[in-house]
Amino acid sequence: MTTNLDAFDQIAESWYRVRHWPLLRAELEQVAAKWNTGRLINVGCAHGADFLPFRQGFQLWGVDRSPAMLAQGVRYAAKHQLYVNLTVADALSLPFPDRTFDWAISVATYHHIRGDEPRLKAFRELRRVVKPGGEAFLTVWNHGQPRFWFRSREQQVPWRVGQKTVYRYYHLFSYREIRKLLLESGWEIISMLPEASHHSPVKRFSRNICVLVKNEAVFSS
After folding, report:
1. What total of structural domains would you count in the chain?
2. Of 15, 126, 170, 179, which has the fewest beta carbons less than 10 angstroms from its beta carbon?
């Protein structure tokens, strides 16, 4: 079976063409305005579209497991005149010292991690590299969105590349589940909301769960 790493390497060029702007631009612009400046890491940055709201005033780092995606990231950064430090790395083992970054973003990354313990480890690893008092904006897919009603939390989601279909693993979170994992990994939750484009009064039906968290406590290994 194709791994997520294989899948994202295969779809990288078509991903670049289709995902040319941040899908959650309003949310990212809001946190960029709040944070204003500093060292920012983007975990699971892919080709880097989510860096755009942070182009002024921030020092940018991006990590992704897919070398092909990061190759598109170099291309994207050149097109948009972004200065970004890009590194091939896994969210479970970030190649940075403790307390390196003021802020972090990660859009649609942690739902690709398979298993409860690895997901918990990844959230702890992110907290390790963010300074005490620093914040992170994270998004994952919501199991409560209507297209996944009565279906498993574990999904293989297709992406077409020419005549071929490539499948990517997703774990669909509930609001309760991601809250529990983030608290267990030491984050303080500031807000947990649907995407801005979700207009239903019932948040549990949103496509995305958008979470702003704070690293309140000092990390100790």
Report:
1. 1
2. 179
CA distance 138 to 134: 13
Q: Is the pLDDT of residue 187 over 90?
A: yes
Tens of pLDDT along 46-101? 999 999 999 999 999 999 999 999 999 999 999 999 999 999 999 999 999 999 99
Residue 219 lies in a domain: no
135, containing H or E segment: strand 130-141
Q: What is the CA radius of gyration of the chain?
A: 16
- On the question of pLDDT at 45 being above 70, the answer is yes
* Contact criterion met (CB below 8 Å) for 58 and 40: yes
Cα atoms in the 13 Å half-sphere on the side-chain side of 144:
15
Asked, for residue 220, whether it belongs to a domain, the answer is: no
List C-alpha distances in Å: 69 to 5, 77, 79, 121, 193: 10, 12, 15, 23, 28
Collect all residues with Cβ–Cβ distance below 8 Å to 147 and sequence separation of at least 6: none
Here the CATH number for the domain that contains residue 65 is 3.40.50.150
Output the pTM of the full model. 0.95
What confidence tens digit (pLDDT) does each residue in 92-147 have? Answer: 999 999 999 999 999 999 999 999 999 999 999 999 999 999 999 999 999 999 99
According to DSSP H, which parts of the chain are helical? 4-18, 25-35, 67-80, 116-129, 175-184
Token pair 């200065």: residue? 83
The answer to whether residue 107 is domain-embedded is: yes
Please report whether residue 122 resides in a domain: yes
How far apart CA 65 and CA 8 sit, in angstroms, is 9
